[in-house]
Amino acid sequence: MTPSPRRPPPVLGGGTGRTCRAPEAGPLHVRLARSALCPDGLTSPDAVEAWLAEACDGNRMTVRRSPLSELPGWNVDPVTGDLTHESGAFFTVHGLEVEHRDAVVPRWEQPSWEQPIIDQPEIGILGLLVREFDGVPHCLVQTKAEPGNVGGVQIAPTVQATRSNYTRVHRGRPVPYLEQFRTPSRGRLLVDVRQSEHGAWFLRKRNRNMVVETTEDVELLPGFRWLTLHRLHRLLHRDDLVNMDLRSVLGSLPVSGSGLAAVQAPADGFQDALTRSLEASESLHSDTEVLHWITERRTRAGVRVRRVPLSGMAGWRHDGVTVTPEGDGPFEVVGVTVGTAGREVDGWSQPVIRPLGTSVAAFLVRPVDGVLHVLAQALAEPGCGDVLELAPTVQCTAQDLHRPDRPPFLDDVLAAAPERVRYAATLSEEGGRLFHARARYLIVEAAPGDGAEHPDFRWLTLRQFAALLPHSHYVNMQARTLLACLYSLAFA
Question: Coil, strand or helix: which one is 62?
């Protein structure tokens, strides 16, 4: 593909004078590695900071708590207590009964329980537009405020929209750049896969994660910037800045393949092992053995779910103001009323899930014959689309930290010496349906003797993760976030 001959390519991103052209030759993963190694690109670090400051100063979103029974546009069913939107679109909050026989599930002390869950069967679009400038791929991202965000404004993908949003059920303004993903044949489709959201809070919720490369002239709208992967990777190390949806897409990028060692000289032994993990065919377990393990765990995991009324759930109180756990529960359901400007609509009300505390998500990693391996967990969650997905080594709620039956490897992670902690940041989860949901994300080198496998855990290379990512229902949201963080270490 070549640039449009109708007019010269525009100068974008603060007057740097850089121009775009047809993509450079070479494998896609090597081109992405060049972007991950480019410190400035079209938008300099100072320009990025100015852009973020401007977005925070201009954020006019207001969020106030409201009783569930008083949310305009929402109905509380008089019999079941379920929360539904009057349009019949968006999502529903109802109760779920969960039973398990032989599965690791988060993380109640009984073999069955009831809980609220968000039921949103429609599939949204998380789209990232890519374009080369001076031979370096850049990603078009935006600053976006969501009612549940910590800090208000975070960095989001080019398009982040539910089906109800982009089909304009709310009769609001159209979603910018949507047609780049509704008609991806206009460019080169790099990624297109349905990925899950948090299985503890969403019932079989999926989003279409898409990456499209374009050579078209693209108008740079207010609030959007072209950034290299290097710059996005650096921003991933800051608390509550890169939102969950962008992390999901970054974690799904096809960055694995041969030839990466020739692109950069690794800085130390850890980085060398990380690069080899992206390249290598050598692994502790073969690909066939990994797929057999996942299939075996899914077959053995006797998880059953059944819809139940939101009112009258065992262990919960629904008083029309909130839906709150009785005792030490992990979250509650509350209502919020939102006022804003610059979004598809200028205000709305909705229920949200509010986690009660900061969770933990961590990968234990270690080199095996010079190739970095990641300890993955086969974790069944009530909202999983296919019983279970690969999750971080440790994925637990704030309540799990204080229980006597602590999750496996939690102590290995939390007690790690500082020099073994390769990544640490507190990141916000999805801000459109969750309120101030945060997790402490960690990547920790295993000490000698840590990380012994048992049936629900296996050591995988990053290439093996990369082979699973083009397929739905294999790698969960928290693991995709940590994969994006690992990529940021590979190309530091």
Answer: strand
